[in-house]
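Hi C.,

You asked whether I'd gotten around to modeling the 419-residue construct. I have! Everything is below, sequence then structure, no commentary in between.
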Amino acid sequence: MRPEDIRVAYITEWFPPEPSRAWFWVAEALRDVGFEVGIVTGSPYYPGSRVLEGYRARDWKVETRDGFRVLRVPEFPSHDSSAVRRIASYSSFALSSALLATPAIRKADVSLVFNSPASSALAAMTSRVGSGTPYVLHVHDLWPDSIFATGFLTTPLVRGVTEPVVDALVQASYRRAAHICAITPGIRRALIERGVPAEKVTLVYNWADESTLRPVPGNGWLRSRLGVDTDAFIALYAGNLGEAQALAPWIAAMARLPDLPDVHLAFMGDGTQRHTLRSRAAECGLDGRIHFISPVPPAELSPIVADADVSVVSLADRDLFRGTLPSKVAASLAMASPVIASVTGDAAEVITAADAGWVARPEDPDSIAAAVRAAHSASPVERARRGRSGYDYYQANMARRLGSEKLASVLMQVARRDR
């Protein structure tokens, strides 16, 4: 059976015009391989909580978007900090897609579920009953672990009611799936430890947006924006400034480097911790060495990253994150940018295996300061070598062509052959 002979129902809670991320890159890659891909999704609202102009939360309609046939089902939009509203959002998409999209999914030869949130699998599970349409889970995080470890559901009452329900749904979705693709070695190990047969789980790394993130020369924008000398050392963090990123220890680390006045740390992004981080930098007297700049569109990022001496990756020290590979890892490797990372687990192992930079203990200012000092003392030639080593590792292990080939192989193996 060839990809051209297979109809794939791709179930994802998010899809353009919401910002293009892994959920869209997967659909694009499968279409490029040759599959006929139809989308089941909700009304667009991410990353906020308001439905985008031109849509309504109660929409149940078919449209063409980026060349895909897209079936949109009603959904309660919310991506804020309210546990009740977030549960309502996840549940509404799960239920409406199971009720309204099942006929379309049953016409497919196989369905692929972007399994974050895990509740998105309900429509695939429902469609499997009666029609026998097999489904593949593309697991991006572990549930219910992730929703509790990130502090999303903290009250005992809400957790007591939610956890057993979510756990039962997740375990049932694993059992009934024809196959599971995990995006990190840690997630794959955890699934096997929870009883999923090893032969049923394939590692498929998330790749970077290779259409915009690639090795290019710097354009001088970053140094001009920061107002620093051409020979200053810049560590650039580009991304969300949230609690999970644990960026405050980086400010404490900078305070431990008074003998390196040419070292600068730039935070490019927005998030809940931006104001707090800025205040802390001022309290430490580091206004001139720690900089805060607004995010830029992905298409403009590569030459800005090339202006920096190293990219920064940071995650909080939590058990859950040991099986997490931040998207900034793949992005940095794809741009051939050397990395300083305060991480553990899978992220640390990938950066070490790639020889792509320097790894520090998460949330440890002394360890971070030592890593910055080591990167600063390395020659430009050595930093460039590590960046190129990371790029080579990305091409050999994480590139789009590899991920799409693995996903295609899985889908072809499990697709129905009785049509």
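If it helps when you're writing up: The chain has a mean pLDDT of 92.

Thanks,
B.
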